[in-house]
Protein backbone atom coordinates (compact mmCIF):
# COMPACT_ATOMS: atom_id res chain seq x y z
CA UNK A 1 0.00 0.00 0.00
CA UNK A 2 2.97 2.31 -0.35
CA UNK A 3 2.13 5.64 -1.93
CA UNK A 4 4.01 6.37 -5.14
CA UNK A 5 2.76 9.91 -5.73
CA UNK A 6 5.87 11.99 -6.43
CA UNK A 7 4.82 15.06 -4.51
CA UNK A 8 4.00 13.20 -1.27
CA UNK A 9 6.12 14.55 1.55
CA UNK A 10 7.00 12.61 4.64
CA UNK A 11 5.82 14.93 7.41
CA UNK A 12 7.61 15.33 10.69
CA UNK A 13 7.26 12.34 12.93
CA UNK A 14 5.55 13.96 15.89
CA UNK A 15 2.51 12.93 17.85
CA UNK A 16 -0.65 14.91 17.37
CA UNK A 17 -1.07 17.74 19.84
CA UNK A 18 -4.07 15.95 21.34
CA UNK A 19 -3.53 12.20 20.86
CA UNK A 20 -6.71 10.25 20.23
CA UNK A 21 -7.82 7.95 23.03
CA UNK A 22 -10.78 6.19 21.48
CA UNK A 23 -12.75 5.46 18.36
CA UNK A 24 -13.67 8.80 16.86
CA UNK A 25 -17.29 9.85 17.49
CA UNK A 26 -18.53 7.81 14.52
CA UNK A 27 -17.27 4.49 15.88
CA UNK A 28 -18.59 5.07 19.37
CA UNK A 29 -21.98 6.17 18.11
CA UNK A 30 -22.22 3.01 16.00
CA UNK A 31 -21.53 0.78 19.02
CA UNK A 32 -24.15 2.65 21.07
CA UNK A 33 -26.74 2.62 18.29
CA UNK A 34 -26.36 -1.11 17.65
CA UNK A 35 -26.55 -1.88 21.36
CA UNK A 36 -29.71 0.21 21.85
CA UNK A 37 -31.50 -1.83 19.20
CA UNK A 38 -30.82 -4.98 21.23
CA UNK A 39 -31.96 -3.85 24.68
CA UNK A 40 -34.94 -5.53 26.29
CA UNK A 41 -37.99 -3.32 26.97
CA UNK A 42 -37.09 -3.26 30.68
CA UNK A 43 -33.49 -2.23 29.99
CA UNK A 44 -34.72 0.38 27.49
CA UNK A 45 -36.91 1.96 30.16
CA UNK A 46 -34.08 2.07 32.68
CA UNK A 47 -31.68 3.58 30.16
CA UNK A 48 -34.31 6.21 29.34
CA UNK A 49 -34.73 7.00 33.05
CA UNK A 50 -30.99 7.24 33.69
CA UNK A 51 -30.34 9.43 30.66
CA UNK A 52 -33.29 11.78 31.20
CA UNK A 53 -32.07 15.34 30.77
CA UNK A 54 -29.16 14.47 28.50
CA UNK A 55 -28.92 16.51 25.31
CA UNK A 56 -29.33 13.31 23.29
CA UNK A 57 -30.72 10.69 25.71
CA UNK A 58 -29.63 7.55 23.91
CA UNK A 59 -26.64 5.22 24.03
CA UNK A 60 -25.34 6.72 20.78
CA UNK A 61 -25.90 10.20 22.15
CA UNK A 62 -23.75 9.65 25.26
CA UNK A 63 -21.20 7.32 23.66
CA UNK A 64 -18.54 10.04 23.37
CA UNK A 65 -19.08 11.64 26.77
CA UNK A 66 -15.95 10.07 28.29
CA UNK A 67 -13.79 11.64 25.55
CA UNK A 68 -15.61 14.96 25.72
CA UNK A 69 -14.47 15.30 29.34
CA UNK A 70 -11.16 16.46 27.83
CA UNK A 71 -12.87 19.81 27.17
CA UNK A 72 -15.78 19.84 29.63
CA UNK A 73 -13.95 18.57 32.74
CA UNK A 74 -10.17 18.39 32.13
CA UNK A 75 -9.38 17.28 35.69
CA UNK A 76 -11.75 14.34 35.44
CA UNK A 77 -10.47 13.46 32.00
CA UNK A 78 -6.92 13.38 33.31
CA UNK A 79 -7.98 11.13 36.18
CA UNK A 80 -9.78 8.70 33.86
CA UNK A 81 -7.66 8.86 30.69
CA UNK A 82 -5.93 5.53 31.38
CA UNK A 83 -9.30 3.80 31.53
CA UNK A 84 -9.60 3.84 27.74
CA UNK A 85 -6.95 1.22 26.88
CA UNK A 86 -4.65 -1.52 28.12
CA UNK A 87 -0.99 -1.95 27.23
CA UNK A 88 0.01 -5.57 27.67
CA UNK A 89 3.35 -6.17 29.32
CA UNK A 90 6.04 -8.48 27.93
CA UNK A 91 4.56 -8.42 24.41
CA UNK A 92 1.83 -10.88 25.41
CA UNK A 93 -1.84 -10.39 24.65
CA UNK A 94 -3.18 -12.32 27.65
CA UNK A 95 -4.41 -9.89 30.31
CA UNK A 96 -2.44 -9.82 33.56
CA UNK A 97 -4.07 -7.45 36.04
CA UNK A 98 -0.94 -6.97 38.14
CA UNK A 99 1.33 -6.24 35.20
CA UNK A 100 -1.10 -4.55 32.80
CA UNK A 101 -3.50 -2.62 35.02
CA UNK A 102 -1.87 -0.88 37.96
CA UNK A 103 -4.46 0.40 40.45
CA UNK A 104 -7.24 -0.72 38.12
CA UNK A 105 -6.51 2.05 35.64
CA UNK A 106 -7.20 0.25 32.38
CA UNK A 107 -10.17 -0.49 30.17
CA UNK A 108 -10.59 -4.12 31.27
CA UNK A 109 -10.94 -3.42 34.99
CA UNK A 110 -12.91 -0.22 34.60
CA UNK A 111 -15.63 -1.85 32.51
CA UNK A 112 -16.24 -4.22 35.41
CA UNK A 113 -16.05 -1.46 38.03
CA UNK A 114 -18.39 0.91 36.23
CA UNK A 115 -20.78 -1.94 35.50
CA UNK A 116 -20.92 -2.73 39.22
CA UNK A 117 -21.93 0.87 39.97
CA UNK A 118 -24.56 0.79 37.23
CA UNK A 119 -26.09 -2.42 38.59
CA UNK A 120 -26.32 -1.14 42.17
CA UNK A 121 -29.76 0.46 42.80
CA UNK A 122 -28.49 1.98 46.07
CA UNK A 123 -26.05 4.22 44.19
CA UNK A 124 -27.11 7.83 43.51
CA UNK A 125 -28.70 8.25 40.10
CA UNK A 126 -25.90 10.59 38.96
CA UNK A 127 -23.30 7.96 39.77
CA UNK A 128 -25.27 5.33 37.87
CA UNK A 129 -25.77 7.70 34.94
CA UNK A 130 -22.05 8.39 34.68
CA UNK A 131 -21.30 4.68 35.05
CA UNK A 132 -23.64 3.92 32.16
CA UNK A 133 -21.89 6.49 30.01
CA UNK A 134 -18.49 5.08 30.89
CA UNK A 135 -19.59 1.50 30.14
CA UNK A 136 -20.95 2.50 26.73
CA UNK A 137 -17.72 4.26 25.84
CA UNK A 138 -15.26 1.75 27.27
CA UNK A 139 -16.88 -1.26 25.63
CA UNK A 140 -16.37 0.58 22.35
CA UNK A 141 -12.75 1.27 23.26
CA UNK A 142 -11.82 -2.30 24.13
CA UNK A 143 -13.01 -3.42 20.68
CA UNK A 144 -10.76 -0.94 18.88
CA UNK A 145 -7.66 -3.05 18.08
CA UNK A 146 -5.17 -0.29 18.88
CA UNK A 147 -6.57 0.05 22.41
CA UNK A 148 -5.15 -3.31 23.44
CA UNK A 149 -1.51 -3.23 22.46
CA UNK A 150 1.57 -5.36 22.92
CA UNK A 151 3.86 -3.53 20.49
CA UNK A 152 5.38 -1.13 23.01
CA UNK A 153 4.40 2.04 21.12
CA UNK A 154 1.39 3.21 23.15
CA UNK A 155 -1.14 1.51 20.91
CA UNK A 156 0.32 2.83 17.67
CA UNK A 157 0.60 6.43 18.91
CA UNK A 158 4.34 6.11 18.41
CA UNK A 159 4.08 4.72 14.87
CA UNK A 160 4.12 7.78 12.64
CA UNK A 161 2.42 7.85 9.25
CA UNK A 162 2.23 10.35 6.41
CA UNK A 163 -1.32 9.77 5.26
CA UNK A 164 -2.74 10.81 1.90
CA UNK A 165 -6.44 11.46 2.51
CA UNK A 166 -9.43 13.49 1.38
CA UNK A 167 -10.96 13.25 4.85
CA UNK A 168 -10.16 16.45 6.71
CA UNK A 169 -9.11 15.93 10.32
CA UNK A 170 -10.83 17.25 13.40
CA UNK A 171 -10.15 20.88 14.30
CA UNK A 172 -7.36 20.21 16.79
CA UNK A 173 -5.32 18.35 14.16
CA UNK A 174 -5.78 20.54 11.11
CA UNK A 175 -2.32 22.06 11.40
CA UNK A 176 -0.94 18.62 10.51
CA UNK A 177 -2.98 18.47 7.28
CA UNK A 178 -1.14 19.98 4.30
CA UNK A 179 -1.90 19.56 0.59
CA UNK A 180 -4.05 16.50 1.16
CA UNK A 181 -1.48 14.79 3.36
CA UNK A 182 -2.00 14.22 7.07
CA UNK A 183 0.91 13.83 9.47
CA UNK A 184 -0.54 11.39 11.97
CA UNK A 185 0.01 8.04 13.66
CA UNK A 186 -1.40 4.54 13.37
CA UNK A 187 -3.64 4.93 16.40
CA UNK A 188 -5.33 7.98 14.92
CA UNK A 189 -5.70 6.23 11.58
CA UNK A 190 -7.80 3.62 13.35
CA UNK A 191 -9.70 6.10 15.48
CA UNK A 192 -10.72 8.41 12.69
CA UNK A 193 -9.93 7.32 9.15
CA UNK A 194 -10.72 3.61 8.80
CA UNK A 195 -14.43 4.19 9.40
CA UNK A 196 -14.42 7.84 8.36
CA UNK A 197 -13.31 7.02 4.81
CA UNK A 198 -16.70 5.33 4.30
CA UNK A 199 -18.31 8.76 4.04
CA UNK A 200 -21.43 7.51 5.83
CA UNK A 201 -23.26 9.20 8.68
CA UNK A 202 -23.69 7.26 11.89
CA UNK A 203 -27.37 6.28 11.51
CA UNK A 204 -26.91 5.24 7.87
CA UNK A 205 -23.84 3.23 8.83
CA UNK A 206 -25.60 1.60 11.79
CA UNK A 207 -28.49 0.58 9.54
CA UNK A 208 -26.01 -1.04 7.15
CA UNK A 209 -24.26 -2.97 9.91
CA UNK A 210 -27.57 -4.00 11.46
CA UNK A 211 -28.81 -5.34 8.15
CA UNK A 212 -25.68 -7.43 7.69
CA UNK A 213 -25.49 -8.87 11.22
CA UNK A 214 -29.02 -8.61 12.63
CA UNK A 215 -27.29 -7.57 15.83
CA UNK A 216 -25.46 -10.85 16.36
CA UNK A 217 -22.13 -11.02 14.51
CA UNK A 218 -20.92 -14.44 13.48
CA UNK A 219 -18.58 -16.25 15.88
CA UNK A 220 -19.01 -13.70 18.66
CA UNK A 221 -18.25 -14.91 22.15
CA UNK A 222 -20.05 -13.11 24.94
CA UNK A 223 -16.94 -13.58 27.07
CA UNK A 224 -15.66 -10.80 29.31
CA UNK A 225 -13.60 -7.61 28.89
CA UNK A 226 -10.27 -9.41 29.36
CA UNK A 227 -11.06 -11.74 26.47
CA UNK A 228 -12.26 -8.85 24.31
CA UNK A 229 -8.96 -7.06 24.94
CA UNK A 230 -7.07 -10.24 24.07
CA UNK A 231 -9.01 -10.49 20.80
CA UNK A 232 -8.16 -6.89 19.89
CA UNK A 233 -4.49 -7.42 20.68
CA UNK A 234 -4.23 -10.63 18.66
CA UNK A 235 -6.10 -9.16 15.69
CA UNK A 236 -3.45 -6.45 15.26
CA UNK A 237 -0.93 -8.98 13.97
CA UNK A 238 -3.46 -11.39 12.48
CA UNK A 239 -4.75 -8.66 10.16
CA UNK A 240 -1.42 -6.95 9.51
CA UNK A 241 -2.69 -3.71 11.04
CA UNK A 242 0.80 -2.17 11.00
CA UNK A 243 1.31 -0.90 7.44
CA UNK A 244 4.33 -1.81 5.36
CA UNK A 245 5.26 1.83 4.86
CA UNK A 246 5.14 5.04 6.87
CA UNK A 247 3.54 6.61 3.79
CA UNK A 248 -0.02 5.43 3.25
CA UNK A 249 -3.06 6.11 1.10
CA UNK A 250 -5.96 6.44 3.53
CA UNK A 251 -8.57 5.09 1.13
CA UNK A 252 -6.52 1.99 0.33
CA UNK A 253 -5.67 1.27 3.95
CA UNK A 254 -9.25 1.88 5.07
CA UNK A 255 -10.61 -0.43 2.37
CA UNK A 256 -8.31 -3.20 3.60
CA UNK A 257 -9.05 -2.69 7.29
CA UNK A 258 -12.69 -1.60 7.31
CA UNK A 259 -14.08 -5.16 7.43
CA UNK A 260 -12.17 -5.69 10.67
CA UNK A 261 -13.30 -2.35 12.08
CA UNK A 262 -16.93 -3.05 11.20
CA UNK A 263 -16.72 -6.49 12.74
CA UNK A 264 -15.36 -5.04 15.99
CA UNK A 265 -18.04 -2.34 16.06
CA UNK A 266 -20.78 -4.94 15.56
CA UNK A 267 -19.30 -7.20 18.22
CA UNK A 268 -19.01 -4.26 20.59
CA UNK A 269 -22.66 -3.34 20.08
CA UNK A 270 -23.82 -6.88 20.69
CA UNK A 271 -21.71 -7.37 23.80
CA UNK A 272 -22.66 -3.96 25.20
CA UNK A 273 -26.32 -4.90 24.87
CA UNK A 274 -25.72 -8.17 26.73
CA UNK A 275 -23.97 -6.29 29.55
CA UNK A 276 -26.71 -3.68 29.85
CA UNK A 277 -29.56 -6.16 29.64
CA UNK A 278 -27.91 -8.23 32.36
CA UNK A 279 -27.38 -5.17 34.54
CA UNK A 280 -30.75 -3.49 34.09
CA UNK A 281 -33.28 -6.27 33.49
CA UNK A 282 -33.64 -8.81 36.34
CA UNK A 283 -35.52 -11.22 34.08
CA UNK A 284 -32.85 -11.25 31.37
CA UNK A 285 -30.73 -14.33 30.85
CA UNK A 286 -27.52 -13.74 28.97
CA UNK A 287 -26.94 -16.00 25.95
CA UNK A 288 -24.28 -18.64 26.02
CA UNK A 289 -21.18 -18.14 23.93
CA UNK A 290 -21.71 -18.69 20.24
CA UNK A 291 -19.69 -21.52 18.67
CA UNK A 292 -16.44 -20.41 17.08
CA UNK A 293 -16.08 -21.04 13.34
TrEMBL record:
<keyword id="KW-0732">Signal</keyword>
<keyword id="KW-0479">Metal-binding</keyword>
<keyword id="KW-1015">Disulfide bond</keyword>
<dbReference type="InterPro" id="IPR003154">
    <property type="entry name" value="S1/P1nuclease"/>
</dbReference>
<dbReference type="InterPro" id="IPR008947">
    <property type="entry name" value="PLipase_C/P1_nuclease_dom_sf"/>
</dbReference>
<keyword id="KW-0255">Endonuclease</keyword>
<dbReference type="Pfam" id="PF02265">
    <property type="entry name" value="S1-P1_nuclease"/>
</dbReference>
<protein>
    <submittedName>
        <fullName>S1/P1 nuclease</fullName>
    </submittedName>
</protein>
<feature type="signal peptide">
    <location>
        <begin position="1"/>
        <end position="17"/>
    </location>
</feature>
<keyword id="KW-0378">Hydrolase</keyword>
<keyword id="KW-0325">Glycoprotein</keyword>
<keyword id="KW-0540">Nuclease</keyword>
Amino acid sequence: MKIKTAHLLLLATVLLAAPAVAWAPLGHRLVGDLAQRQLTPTAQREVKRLLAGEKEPSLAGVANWADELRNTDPARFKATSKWHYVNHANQQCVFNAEADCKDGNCVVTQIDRQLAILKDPTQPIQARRDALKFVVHLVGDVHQPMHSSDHGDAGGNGYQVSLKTRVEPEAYAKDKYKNGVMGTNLHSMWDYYVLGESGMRSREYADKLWASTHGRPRATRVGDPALWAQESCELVDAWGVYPESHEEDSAEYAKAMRPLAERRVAQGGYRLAVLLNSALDPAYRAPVDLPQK
